[in-house]
Amino acid sequence: MDISDLQVFATVAKLGSMRKASEELNTVQSNITARIRALEENLGTSLFERHHRGVTLSAAGQRLLPYYDRLAHLMCEARQATIDDGVPTGPLKIGSQETTAALRISPVLAKFLHKYPDVNLSLRTETTAALIESVLEHRLDGAFVCGPVDHPNLKTSSCFAEELVVFGPPDMTSIAKTCDHANLRIVVMNAGCQYRFMLEDFLARLGRKNVPVLEFGTLETVINCVSAGLGITMLPRALLPHINRIGPVSLHALPASSAHVETVFISRKDALQTSARTALFQTIQDHWEDFHASNDQPAPRQAVHSSLRVIS
C-alpha cells in the first residue's frame, strides 16, 4: 500500500464509481478496478460495497478514508515546507463570517496583499460552525469567527468586539411586544450561525422557546425578509449603514449580558507555519493593535434596559 493506491481509493470513494474515477485520473477503468482489488487483498478486507449504481464505502473503507486525507495534507505540507524560502508566496485560504467580511477585514486583507502580492489569497464566507470545521479539516488556513472558541486543536487570537442588536420590521416597537406574537420567527443565515444561537438564548430568557427559524444564504436576503415583516434577526450594530441600503428596519438595543460578542481569528495549532501564514498573522495582529490604538473602533454603547426601543 502506498500513497498512489490510497489516491485511487479516495477518488473512487469521492465519485462513487470506478468508471468516473478512471476518467478523473485519466486511466482505463480496468486499471482502477485492479488497483482497488490489489489494495483490498493487501489489507485483507473489502473497502467498497458494489452495486448496480456504482460503489459505496464499506465500514472498513470509511475507517481508512480519513487516513488518506491526513497523508494527502502532510504531503502538501511537505512540499510547502521544501519550497518555502522565507518569502510569502503561494495559496492561502482564509474564512470569515459574512458580516465580519462586510464590516472589518477588507482593510486587513488589502494591507496584506499590498505588501505580499505573490500570495494567492482566497476568502470564503460561512457560518462560524462551518468555518471551525473547515479549519479543523485543513480546508482553510485560518478564519475569523464568533468567539469564544475552545478546542484543543485550535489556537485563537482576539481581534475586536461587536455590539449586537436586534433588527426587526420597520413597525416593530419593542422586542417584548414582538415576543408575545404567535407568529414570531427568527431570520438567520444558514445552519450553524452563531448569532442565531445567541438570539434563541436571548428569546428563551424572555420566555419564548423553540421559535421557528427561517434560514437563508446571504445577508441581503435576511435583511429583505426582516424588512418585509417575516421575522427578527440579531446582527452587529455596525452593519446599520449597510442594512439601511438594503431595506428599512427597526433597531433595538440589548441588555449588556446579551449585547457583546468577540471576533477571534482561529488556526490549527499543528499547522505548518509557512512564510505566508506567518506574514498574515503578523498583519492581523499589527492591524488590530493600530486599530484600537487610534480609537477607530467606538466603545460599545451603553445598553438600554428599557432599551427595547426603536432607535433607528
Report on the biggest sheet. 7 strands, mixed
- State the name of the first-level CATH class of the largest domain: Alpha Beta
The assigned CATH architecture of the largest domain is 3-Layer(aba) Sandwich
List SSEs in N-to-C order.
HHHEEHEHEHEEHEHEHEHEHEH
Gyration radius (Cα, Å) is 24 Å
Number of E strands: 11
What do we call the CATH topology of the largest domain?
Answer: D-Maltodextrin-Binding Protein, domain 2
Strand content: 15-25%
Task: Give the tags.
D-Maltodextrin-Binding Protein, domain 2, 3 domains, Arc Repressor Mutant, subunit A, 7-stranded mixed beta sheet, two-stranded antiparallel ribbon, 312 residues
Task: Write up this protein.
This protein has 312 residues and is of the alpha/beta class. The strands form three sheets. Strands 3, 4, 5, 6, 9, 10 and 11 form a seven-stranded mixed beta sheet that branches. The longest helix is centred in the N-terminal third of the chain and has 25 residues, at 59-83. It has three domains: 3-83, Winged helix-like DNA-binding domain superfamily/Winged helix DNA-binding domain (Arc Repressor Mutant, subunit A); 90-160 and 261-293, Periplasmic binding protein-like II (D-Maltodextrin-Binding Protein, domain 2, 3-Layer(aba) Sandwich), CATH 3.40.190.10; 162-259, D-Maltodextrin-Binding Protein, domain 2 (3-Layer(aba) Sandwich), CATH 3.40.190.10. Helices cover 46% and strands 21% of the residues. A hairpin with a 2-residue loop joins β1 (48-51) and β2 (54-57).
